[in-house]
Write a structure and sequence with these properties.
By secondary structure, the chain is mostly helical. Helix content is about 75%, strand content about 0%. The protein starts with 12 loop residues before the first helix and ends with a helix.
Length: about 230
C-alpha cells in the first residue's frame, strides 16, 4: 500500500468514514454499557493522535452543551437514575466523535477515493457538493453579516431587518452560487453517464490507516469482553 502523506497525518477518506460509522453505530448499540464512556474517551484521544484534533475540539462544546442538557433531562425523567444519564451521554459522545472523524476528510480527497473504486458519478458528485456545502454556507452567512455591519443595518434579531437585510441577500447569494456551481461542474467535465475519466493524485491506504481502524475495533472488543 502506498502513502500519499504530505503534511501531518491524513487518514484515507474511506477508512475515516468507515471508522466514523463504526463509532456511531457501536456507541448507539452499547450505550447502556458502563465501560463505553472509557472507550469514547480513548477514541477521542485516538482521533487526536491521528490528526482529527480540530474536528474533536470543534465538536467538544456542542457535546458539552447538548449532551449535558439531554443527560440532565434523562436523569430527571428517570427519577434520578444515573445510568440513564450516562447512557444518554454515551449516545451523544458516539455521535459527535463520529462527526469529528468525518470532518477530517477533505471533499476533494473523498471524491478521488470514490472515483478510484468506480463509484457511480451521481454519488461522487453528490458527495462532493454536500461536503463542500456546509463550509460554503458558513462563509456566506459571515459575508452577509459583515455587509450588514458595514451598512449599519441594525440588529439581525429585528424581524424586518432580518428579512430585508439578511434573508433576502443570503437567498440571492445562494441562487447565484448554485448557478455558478452548475456551470463549474459542466465546464470541468463532470457527467452522470459512463464516460471514461482519470483520477489526479490517487488516494491509497497506508499502514497508519489500518492501525487507525484496528485501534477503534480493538477498543470496541475490549468494551464487549470486559
Amino acid at each position: 500500500m502506498k502513502s500519499v502523506r504530505v503534511k501531518g497525518i491524513k487518514l484515507y477518506p474511506l477508512f475515516a468514514v468507515l471508522g466514523a460509522l463504526f463509532i456511531i453505530i457501536f456507541g448507539l448499540v452499547t450505550a447502556r454499557n458502563q465501560n463505553l464512556c472509557w472507550y469514547l474517551l480513548g477514541v477521542f484521544v485516538w482521533l487526536c493522535i491521528f490528526g482529527c484534533y480540530k474536528g474533536c475540539l470543534k465538536m467538544l462544546p456542542a457535546f458539552i452543551i447538548f449532551g449535558g442538557a439531554f443527560a440532565a433531562i434523562a436523569y430527571a425523567s428517570a427519577g434520578g437514575d444515573l445510568p440513564a444519564a450516562i447512557s444518554m451521554l454515551n449516545r451523544f459522545g458516539a455521535l459527535f466523535l463520529g462527526v469529528a472523524a468525518s470532518m477530517s476528510v477533505e471533499a476533494v480527497r473523498m471524491t478521488r477515493a470514490l472515483s478510484q473504486i468506480h463509484t457511480p458519478r451521481a454519488i461522487t458528485l453528490g458527495m462532493l457538493i454536500s461536503m463542500s456545502f456546509v463550509p460554503m454556507l458558513r462563509g456566506e452567512v459571515r459575508r452577509v453579516r459583515e455587509a450588514m455591519k458595514t451598512r449599519g443595518a441594525g440588529s439581525v434579531l429585528n424581524p424586518k431587518i432580518f428579512y430585508r437585510a439578511f434573508l433576502v441577500p443570503f437567498v440571492m447569494r445562494l441562487v447565484n452560487i448554485s448557478d455558478t456551481l452548475a456551470l463549474s461542474v459542466e465546464t470541468r467535465g463532470f457527467t452522470l453517464g459512463g464516460s471514461p475519466y482519470t483520477v489526479y493524485k490517487k488516494q491509497y491506504p497506508a499502514v497508519l490507516d489500518v492501525l487507525f481502524i484496528l485501534g477503534i475495533v480493538a477498543g470496541a472488543v475490549l468494551v464487549v469482553v470486559l
